[in-house]
Design a protein that fits this description.
The complex is a heterodimer of chains A (272) and B (321). With 272 residues, chain A is α/β, with parallel strands linked by helices. Chain A is 42% helix and 22% strand. Chain A starts with a helix and ends with a helix. Chains A and B meet through helix 3, helix 4, helix 5 and helix 7 of A and helix 7, helix 8 and helix 9 of B.
């Protein structure tokens, strides 16, 4: 039984060697509304893929499905060849698929360092005995690792600030830092630069590229078209829960259907 | 600052060690009950930190009390063992109740705990052959340690002090470790905690069972100290009192429930058992919500702020001048 599973797993891995994430017919209904409708999403290892679309197109629902926060009505999600469709959020993370949240969802009353320490949750050795008899609050190697992540994301000087006291831009980056501490293979970023000025969003997008260069695949949802076009290698456009178009930034931005969808939803969005 | 705090703690513990020498049996009795209340209040904190409103904590005290008393009375089990068994029974019942209901959020979980406290009270009232029901369970042996019976009130007082300090030490170590950080994270943003790989259901359950265990310890001590158990004592009223200790003391710091339990149980001592007790607790809760939302532990900070503000306005020229 187990052998069979291992074999089937390694076979599927061979078939889709470069594919890290693959959804097949992913569908989610809310009442009568199909928020996500038969979406086939493919993300290859090492890519930066953008998921765009007008408001209400189903992007965030897609993220919630992929990260296990809601269950699909139909369809499957495979991550690195393994079926993860029915897993719960903390089990999805264990496999290396880590998400961030749209708004500044942080542990507001904890310091930056403590936030990142929580990101290390899956990689920390903890036990009741250690908690009761250790003289130190946290293992020094975990603190050192958290400081490294803060350094890497440019938040080193904010380590001891309460998260709620950080400026908006830093709060968003702290969210990414926590996700990084969980050592993702695929990082799902939900609107990482929304509400940032040009300078800040430029820095975050540069960070996203560095993260990818270190071997993490990135799938991001973003409304800021300048950021998306400048960073993503491939873009998937959703509209009314369905895939409208897919391709390079140049292909997508000249696609007639895409332009129509965005003009219908408002010209401002298309121009970012 | 840290040294000052440690110093204050040492002085407090020394004072508590001296109570039997300084006061009579009355004070010894009152303070032993205060220590039980501190254990109860502090043991509710892990669950509250996870964002779970438990309005039925007294049920687990009741379970620990009856289990330990019955074991000691009917089977002559020594106190150390019966207390541990009582606490473990409370924790196991916590597991059975918590496993399905901790998946419920907010007010729904609170409703389950309210119902549970009544169920336990009714079981204690109606299972007459075992608990003697409304006649009350009497003839519970005095606590003993290593075969020596703690006959005097003073020796029982020291037992209560020891149990309280041990409980607080364990809970403090856990709260200040990574485990406590996880509890806080679940209370602040459970979806984010999940997205970092925290199994929130398991952690909520662990925090809840830990609280049940120490409520059981408090119950076991209480049973062998008062030596009489009466089902309605562990009802909804006591459960809300434990919650009020936490809120009046303050939710933001480990010391909150300790301060709250000590302050309220000492102040309400003249009304103990009368209808005025309920009124007193209600007023304390109302005043806290209105004037000190952060609880009593935020009082020193508030006073310092006030003094600073007064001196600042005294030095600056008034607008009229």
């Amino acid at each position: 039984m187990v052998e069979e599973r291992i074999r089937s797993q390694s076979e599927s891995r061979r078939v889709s060697s470069a594919l890290l994430l693959e959804t097949h017919g992913l569908t989610r209904h809310f009442g009568g509304l199909a928020a996500v409708n038969r979406v086939d999403l493919r993300v290859a290892e090492g890519e930066i893929v953008g998921l765009i679309g007008p408001n209400g197109a189903g992007k965030t629902t897609c993220f919630n499905l992929l990260s296990g926060f809601i269950r699909p009505t139909a369809g499957t999600i495979r991550f690195d060849g393994e079926d993860i469709t029915r897993l719960r959020p903390h089990q999805v993370v264990k496999r290396g698929l880590v998400r961030t949240f749209q708004l500044t969802t942080l542990f507001q009353e904890l310091t930056g360092l403590e936030n990142v320490l929580l990101g290390l949750h899956l990689h920390s050795r903890r036990s009741l005995g250690r908690a009761l008899f250790s003289r130190r609050r946290f293992p020094p190697d975990e603190v050192a690792r958290s400081r490294e992540v803060l350094e890497f994301t440019g938040l080193a000087s904010q380590a001891d600030q309460l998260a709620r006291n950080l400026p908006h831009g830093h709060q968003r980056v702290l969210g990414i830092a926590m996700a990084l501490a969980a050592r993702p293979r695929l990082l799902l970023l939900d609107e990482p630069v929304t509400g940032m000025n040009l300078d800040e969003s430029g820095r975050v997008m540069a960070l996203v590229k560095t993260i990818r260069d270190r071997g993490v695949t990135v799938l991001l949802v973003e409304h800021n078209m300048k950021a998306v076009m400048g960073t993503c290698e491939r873009i998937v456009v959703l509209n009314f829960g369905q895939t409208l178009a897919e391709g390079s930034p140049a292909e997508v931005s000249t696609n007639a259907k895409v332009i129509e969808a965005y003009l219908g939803a408002g010209l401002a969005h298309a121009r970012g | 600052m840290r040294r000052l705090r440690v110093g204050v703690l040492i002085v407090l513990v020394l004072l508590m060690l001296l109570v039997p020498q300084l006061g009579g049996d009355y004070y010894v009795h009152v303070f032993a009950l205060v220590f039980t209340n501190v254990i109860l209040a502090a043991s509710l904190r892990p669950s509250l930190t996870c964002g779970q409103l438990n309005i039925g904590h007294s049920a687990f005290m009741s379970i620990g009390a009856y289990a330990s008393a019955l074991l000691a009375k009917n089977l002559a089990v020594p106190f150390e063992v019966s207390m541990l068994c009582g606490a473990l029974v409370a924790a196991v019942v916590g597991l059975v109740i918590g496993y399905p209901s901790l998946r419920l959020r907010g007010v729904y979980f609170a409703m389950v705990t309210v119902a549970f406290v009544e169920v336990i009270r009714l079981i204690a009232q109606l299972w007459v052959p075992l608990t003697r029901g409304m006649s009350g369970l009497s003839g519970i042996p005095k606590p003993n340690l290593l075969g020596v019976t703690l006959a005097t009130k003073a020796s029982q007082y020291y037992l209560a002090l020891f149990l309280m300090l041990l409980t607080l030490l364990i809970l403090w170590k856990l709260e200040s470790s990574r485990l406590g950080l996880i509890w806080k994270s679940i209370g602040m943003a459970d979806n984010l905690a999940q997205s970092l790989g925290v199994n929130i259901a398991n952690h909520k359950l662990l925090a809840f069972m830990l609280g049940c265990f120490f409520a059981g310890v408090a119950g076991a001590f209480y049973a062998h100290f008062i030596r009489f158990l009466f089902p309605p004592e562990f009802g909804f009223l006591m459960a809300t009192n434990i919650l009020v200790y936490n809120y009046v003391g303050g939710r933001g710091h480990f010391a909150g429930p300790i301060v709250g339990a000590a302050f309220l149980s000492l102040l309400s001592e003249p009304f103990r058992g009368s209808a005025y007790e309920t009124i007193f607790f209600s007023i304390a809760m109302l005043l806290t919500i209105l004037f000190l939302p952060g609880g009593l532990i935020t009082l020193p900070g508030k006073l310092a702020e006030l003094r600073w503000w007064k001196s600042a306005s005294a030095h600056s020229p008034s607008p009229a001048a």
